[in-house]
Amino acid sequence: MADKRKRRRSELNPDGEAQLPFKNSLKSDSIILQILKEFSDCSTAPSSSSSKTLDDLGLSSSCREVTDLSLSSVQSTIEDLILKIARSILSGNGFAFDVPSRSAANQLYVPELDRIVLKDKTAIRPYANISTVRKSTITTRILQLVHQLCIKNIHVTKRDLFYTDVKLFQDQTQSDSVLDDVSCILGCTRSSLNVIAAEKGVVVGRLIFSDNGDMIDCTKMGMGGKAIPPNIDRVGDMQSDALFILLVEKDAAYIRLAEDRFYNRFPCIIVTAKGQPDVATRLFLRKMKMELKLPVLALVDSDPYGLKILSVYGCGSKNMSYDSANLTTPDIKWLGIRPSDLDKYNIPEQCRLPMTEQDIKTGKDLLEEDFVKKNPGWVEELSLMVKTKQKAEIQALSSFGFQYLSEVYLPLKLQQKDWL
Q1: Of 287, 291, 281, the residue nearest 313 (C-alpha)
Q2: b vs e for 38-55, b when ≥16 Cβ sit within 10 Å of the residue's Cβ?
Q3: Would the annotation count 407 as a binding residue?
Q4: Model confidence at 16, in pLDDT bands (50, 70, 90)?
Q5: Mean pLDDT in residue range 140-153
Q6: Average pLDDT of the segment spanning 43-59
Q7: Which of 97, 134, 164, 276 is the most buried (most CB within 10 A)?
Q8: Domain 63-196 in this protein, CATH class
Q9: Phi and psi dihedrals of 211, rounded to 5?
Q10: Residue 358 CB-density burial (10 A; 0-12 exposed, 13-18 middle, 19+ buried)
Q11: Can you tell me whether residue 419 is helix, strand or coil?
């Protein structure tokens, strides 16, 4: 009985509160801040992947990339395309769109750039064909709507676009997909079309920027933070005294860090897209990285989908590989939660989840991806995940206390420079 009382007392601090695991390993904040300062200073030099372009590389197969175009350029390009179609119809040949293929077979990972790009294969989309007539009609309709936006100089959301012709589009995924095709056909970025996604991502912390002329201080936006503007063109004049950018996968972890004002203890900017990365958040993150020259550390779930989300931010998505030059943020470090952390931080078994067969398949598929193979640390962690068949969410750390993430786990990770 006496042994139990003694053991119970040893687990309490002088104030009678439970001692947080590994808290005794933490050094003072001033020492951790010095480590972060040195890390931030080393990150100001541009990486080789961010300074190169496709034109600098002698690739075996040519690739296709889009650029930002002015509204007048987009308008004239659409008009030239429609005139070409009209001439083809008048000559008795009907018409067809020459659409860049965005299939998996037409994607290429370029190690020198550390991102996925689109190769130059195209597919013909004729109107006079029963299998493609509907998609050709949708393509023409999207071109018409974008042309109207150019003339009126206004922005609409993808949802607005869908509701202009619900019977034709039937499902928003169809209009969204053709919108990406139109970007490829015109050779411009999605944002050049003045069609934006609804606001999803948020940012909080040591950042001041102008949003359409209004100055926004992200330390004074409450725990909800500032919604990331869907139109990146109206964002400018970024200023920050942060030492790094913390990219968080999920809203729950973001709220915890924002409420604890983690960015004041360790000067940083905290960003989340609340799950799957949207275009606006990817553009905003890249803009911060390039303008502020800050390192980016990622906090994602310890499962294959957390790593996929991280890879979309860093290397790009296959669906939008045609615009990877504008949407990717080079050299993102994987901070956590990593598979090796589950045992390292003694995450309780009841907080670990068994991987499903689909999880395991996704993990094995990721191990075959070139962008994963390039990073031995990623391969080691992913192999461990597939071997143990265990996954965990960031919230598993809450088993040690709701503030364990901000009070112990992240400070210790930063202190030990424990990122990949």
Answers
A1: 281
A2: ebbeebeeeeebbebebe
A3: no
A4: very low
A5: 96
A6: 64
A7: 97
A8: mainly alpha
A9: -120, 100
A10: exposed
A11: coil
DSSP H helical ranges for 1-47:
2-10, 29-42
Provide the CATH topology of domain 26-50+199-415: Dna Topoisomerase Vi A Subunit; Chain: A, domain 2 (3.40.1360)
What single-letter amino acid sits at 115? R
Query: Are the C-beta atoms of 245 and 288 separated by less than 8 Å?
Result: yes
* Buried b / exposed e along 256-285 (16+ C-beta atoms within 10 A): bbbebebbeebbbbbbbbbeebbbbbbbbb
- The pLDDT value given to residue 6: 43
Same fold, 26-50+199-415 and 63-196: no
108 within 8 A of 119, measured Cβ to Cβ? yes
Domain ranges for the chain = 26-50+199-415, 63-196
Q: Which residues are catalytic?
A: 163
* DSSP structure string for 343-367: HHTT--GGG-EEPPHHHHHHHHHHH
Taking residues 288-304, report their average pLDDT.
Answer: 95
DSSP 144-213: HHHHHHHHHT--EEHHHHHHTSHHHH-SHHHHHHHHHHHHHHHTB-GGGGTEEPPP--EEEES-EEEETT
SS (H, E, C) 288-343: HHHHHCCCEEEECCECHHHHHHHHHHHHCCCCCHHHHHHHCCCCEEEEECCHHHHH
DSSP character at residue 407: I
> In this model, does residue 79 exceed pLDDT 50?
yes
Dist. CA 242–CA 293, nearest whole Å: 10
Q: Is 343 annotated as a binding residue?
A: no
